[in-house]
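PT: before anyone asks, these are the final sequences, not the draft ones from last week. 762 residues across everything. Please model them as a single complex and drop the result in this thread when it's through.
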Amino acid sequence: MTGRVRGAGRTPVLHTLGAVAALALLAAGCGGEREGPVEVLFWGMGREGEVVRELVPDFERRNPGIRVRVQQIPWTAAHEKLLTAFVGEATPDVAQLGNTWVPEFVVLGALEELGLWVERSAVIHEADVFPGIWDTNVVDGRLYGVPWYVDTRVLFYRTDILAEAGYDSIPRTWEGWREALRRMKAVMGPDGHPILLPTNEWPQPVILGMQGGAPLLREDGRWGNFSDPRFRAGFEFYVSLFREGLAPAVSGSEIANRYQEFAEGRVAMMITGPWEIGEFRRRLPPDLQDRWMTAPLPGPDGPGISLAGGSSLVMFRRSQRKDAAWKLIEFLSEPAQQLRFYELTGDLPSRRDAWDDPVLANDRHTRAFREQLERVRPLPKVPENELIVTKVFEQGERAARGAASVDEALRALDAEVNRILEKRRWLLARQEPEQ
Amino acid sequence: MSRVLDTAADVARGVRPAPAEPARPRRRRALTRGDAGDAGAAALVFLGPALFLIGVFFLLPVLAAFLLSFTDFDIYAVADLRNTRFVGLRNYVQLLGTPLFWTALKNTFYFALVGGPLTIAASLGAALLVNHRLVRFKTLFRTIYFLPFVTTLVAVALVWRYLYHTRYGLLNYGLGLLGLGPVDWLGDPRWAMPAIILMATWKNFGYNMLIFIAGLQAIPDSLYEAARIDGASAWQRFRHITLPQLGPTTFFVCVITMIGYLQLFVEPYVMTAGGPLRSTTSLVLFMYEEGFRWWRMGMAAAIAVVLFVIILLATLVQFRFRPEERP
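LR: through. Structure below.
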């Protein structure tokens, strides 16, 4: 994406604010040592916001002049809280930001550009991080976040049912995979469904659609690209799994307990994320613990891509303690801290060197993630991305339940997404004469 | 759902028949022609502060929301106000073409049309019981029944979520004793709305009950005595004296309950987040999502205006069927 919707960067008010902030920084610099330590405000979300407190004492010991105040924000309120903080000029110094939110906060002009900071850093190097994950933080060629932990989707499956169907591993192509599902279905009987794809979850149809290689949006995010034959192929594959009875057409809330379904063999496979490793270990009965495994996603004609998710660490432009804030970001990015964080939360590290540690390298269930992370792609970097992906599953659900044909659903999807993007097209068109 | 407790006093005044009457002629006499100008000025002084507050904190925001509904104010506009456009009726047209709007509308009417009458029936029943001659400790019962209304809704909703739990919930435990299978109260699209209605009824009937009690106490005993002498049964007395005498009270209760129930929000927000399968997404919850989840303020304002029109129409319809005031 090269076209850039400019927002706050061009407002005089915010320019003035920026200047004031810069002056304040200067004043702080010239005024010599201020009283007491510098206090950095960090906003963490959900469980991560709770656990990061345990890492802080080490940081403060190493940096006696800096104190970190961690504020924990529940995920359900995080987005709203960040936006109101921006409007109310009360943003923190550093925050954890879901990487699909980065484009939105870039449009707002809320985030500090981190390219120069990284260039000078001895700790953070682009080459250490999985490329697809790093890419989620780059908008219009500029870096706005440092990957903290990663999230992607892989297959979780019952090894015993797969073996009964005559396979010792998941085939790597769509056709092979579908054939394996058919044979599993035959083994499982009429009540069983080899794969669970809850119809109210967007990652599954989005990933399969992206696997063909087509971007979800075209012309710098001006238009939906869902009628592209490459997207259509993945979408049709997704829908066919329901139509063939290989996946039940139910939404997540209609399944009382997916772990129980998995344990009792009514479902033998799902596409889900790293937090599920912990859940499976906790919730599945002990005798099942050596009968499930993870595998990277198959693709149209070989190993497929998956989604580049996770959270980044960002610094806010309005921060007046950027040096201290950057030190905190560097500290949390160290491989040792990433490993500790993994042990505390189960969140997977964003750096390859952290993965070399035996804790992760010898874990049979995280191995699939390690491989998958080399093949991940971000969502389109437009602020509307979350709304757009919910439209994908809504149309996917229509097609899966037989309320629309694949082509009808994709046409409706393009129409809806084009409507959502109308504002973006107008903004980009308005900027063109100026450039 | 917010209600102004002060209105209870107004109603009691409207309902209570005789005492207000004699005062009226005297007041009229005081306002002779010469005084009119002074009285007007004095009235302005007294009303001024209230009018100012209403203007700044109510009229202005309402006007702003109305204007907002004709713009495409969104996340880009938060970044720079110049990214806002006047779009005329586009928000409204799009809204009518959004399936989720119709789902939310249907859910809201479901809640108001089932939950409203249920709440009113429960509060009337409770009022009759508490007000009965034979009941002792009236104040105690009144307080107990009123307690849910003054408890924080969020706290109540959290507790009810436990009550509704499929496996450990008290409600399913009770059903189990009766030999009925467990119901997935908040996880089943068919049961989620009834579950929310049940909770809302329990939460709100105490307030209406108090108003009904006030209405009941204003009915002169002489009417009942006369009826008893004529040999009217308990049911006949209820049907031909209590109900007609409660007419204005019931009218007030209906209007207030309906307005409150059409604004359903906290219950689904806390208990179900609008799910399962959108079966508990109300209009206000839908508006909240558009406004604060997707930050489409123009669209959210349009939903607010539509809801306002619906409530206005519903109230007008009720006024049309307003019972005659009786002395």
